[in-house]
């Protein structure tokens, strides 16, 4: 399988070292080293991304925009096949993409300093800012309804009816807790109608390992562009809150380790607003804390829905894996909600009125 794929790029499998790489849940990733050249090879999960060609279209479009309008921006363009078949190729019904491995770059799985949080937030803010002049209608929706909380909530209630009965019983407390936070879905409904909320080019997966840094800790670029599509800023800012605020990540089973750290919140506010303050409306800035609630709540719902549906989407490394992940995210939601007042202060200190 890989031999044919690599051959399409003029690489010979026997001359390459191929190692599994990274920790994504959806796509499969390898690092391919052939002599002094290294690449990242990815198999795109076709069950999830039904139209991988749209991903290639977006990456091409965005890459062209950068090279035309922001030539200094460091953008990792996937490699073309020898016969110019495109940036995503198909083999036996599976989809692959190859891109150069950025040498001397570093990536992190854990946000271990405020500087790192600041720098990552700056990179995601810069990405959206530099793409603000692009015609949003030319950006394809690669995953319809990806961050449609209304639909995610409906799917959750469906799973509470049709899911695995034993798991439903076992999840009773969590189901109740999710229903108590329903205002988060209601607020999303108002956001969709509000003229102050703009659709922009958003990354939709802003965890720390989707930023490449140089050895000195400066951000180089953002990677993993499959879910780049039109969206609201709450997706990116919220996913940073979801994944940078707590010292323990979504896999942690000891919920007492989950925190919403204020200095880290301040760091991502500073990094993000430093790039996007002029772009964001008053109404959007007022929803910066909501952004975290929105993303953490949606992830909690997605994990629990998957648990009730026998782990069909995320899979499970142990028996109650997705139940634990859902409980973890609910705890993080509690921690963020408790900090609301302090977090509002941090946004206000940036000179932005949040009244
Ligand atoms: C998935 O595959 P990965 O780790 O980049 C998921 C995200 C979730 C994340 C939770 C397409 O991302 O939405 O936040 O898992 N991506 C998709 O770890 O569903
Ligand atoms: Mg991803």
From TrEMBL:
Residues 18-248 form the Aminoglycoside phosphotransferase domain. InterPro entries: Aminoglycoside_PTrfase (IPR002575), Kinase-like_dom_sf (IPR011009), Pseudomonas-type_ThrB (IPR050249). Keywords: Transferase. It comes from the Bacteria. One of its GO terms (molecular function) is transferase activity. This is Phosphotransferase. It comes from Chitinophaga oryziterrae. The lineage of its organism: Bacteria, Pseudomonadati, Bacteroidota, Chitinophagia, Chitinophagales.
